[in-house]
Amino acid sequence: MSLLPIINPDETQSQLSSLATARGSRGDYAFISLGCPKNLVDSEQMLGLLQRDGYRLVQDPEKSDFVVINTCGFIDNARKESFDAIDQMLELKRKGKIKGVIVTGCLAERQQEKLLEARPEIDGMVGVFGRDDITTIVDRFMDGLDEQRTIFKPAPIRALSDDCRLQVTPKHFAYLKISEGCDRLCTFCAIPKMRGKHASKPMDKILEEAKRLADNGVREIVVVAQDTTYYGIDMFGEPRLSELLVELDKIDVDWIRLMYFYPMYIDDRLIDTIASAQRIVPYIDMPLQHINSQVLKRMSRRVTREQTYEYVTKLRSRIPNLVMRTTMIAGFPGETDEQFDELEEFVAEIRFERLGVFSYSIENDTPAAKLTDHLPERIKKERRNRLMAVQQRNAFQWCEEQVGSKLEVLIDKAVDESKNVWLGRTFADAPDVDSTVFVTGEPGNPLHAGAMVDCEIVTYKDYDLIGVATGAPR
Predict the structure, then answer these.
(1) Cα separation of 222 and 252, whole Å?
(2) CATH H superfamily, domain 406-469
(3) H-helix or E-strand spanning residue 404
(4) Which of 109, 113, 355, 459 could connect to 127 by a Cys-Cys bridge, CB 3.0–4.6 Å?
(5) What confidence tens digit (pLDDT) does each residue in 7-56 have?
(6) Among 334, 377, 336, which residue's Cα sits nearest to residue 359?
């Protein structure tokens, strides 16, 4: 069996044991969480609900009564991973090693009854917005009832509450989802079909959740959404991210990290809020996808080359030490050699510290699939590789510039605890997607996961920094 992201109960940071009045009395289950951090928050909510209902989480699927798979349906590779996970668990069911398989999340939402028709052995399915009814499906399955095997609900007007989460990230960092869905309708993207229209979470609920995370020992809060800068428009008629960030900055954590900025609705007030904040790190994840105005128009991104330049240069000039992460799409339908050259030159010029590149993937239920002039896979792959080669030079140059500097590092996990060697991240590194720092602690000052430590960067290897702690952890 290939390795799957099966959640380990020994590594979870449960704040909900008091809710499980009969922990384990209803059955044991394993949980596989796939996809993005937004999906992980949904997984944490379902884990909390299952625990509250009396189910016990185990790591080994073969020692469980049933397995819940929270799927991703974004692009072809993600769907393949989800199908593989489903098929592996169904094979365990056929062998009699588990009783049932419950499928949730984006792939379930996107395919609905088609998925059940293709794999009728699935015992239950819950869509994205039926998430909070996971125990209903599980209870029916465990009680031997099969009159309703699926729960799909329309997207809510307001984002669902995440107040029952069982945190499965390391105790020192957690994701904070501030909205759901997306109104952008980019031609290449199927997320609105799976996640619905944009729906903001009420500000007081976000702040309550952030305070709970801080009280539980979280040192880094990572703010996520499908479209972070759009926050509040559905409730107030105008973006209110700046107002939210002012309040979040008052919460007692070390770092607040901002992900998934769309390049619209970045105004002077928002920039000033980030620049003057005490806890918001100078790091922005802003997927741009391209720079050529014609390609951006075909993508329905609603920004131009000139506007994109303005956003990027304004952020760079007004937020000291800003690190930017972005993503680009290579080989979009109709992309000419000249348009790709323009993108390549842009990436070389701006020198994004963090950048990922996707080869355009055809999504059959999106407008881009119907465009003419789709490019051969060979060209898309070649362009992706060219762009990544440019980015590699940028990233290595940034690493070289850090040698000799002193940076604060948040320790994530041990490399060799006996030698006091650990793996951590700087403000420039988001969990799981960016680079890392190999840190050697001082003799007599053992490090530990969740510690903050000052570190002198002595060298680098590929994309990762190597440093030596210069004091005691805190």
Answers:
(1) 14
(2) Nucleic acid-binding proteins (2.40.50.140)
(3) none
(4) 109
(5) 788 777 555 444 444 444 789 999 999 999 999 999 999 999 999 999 99
(6) 377
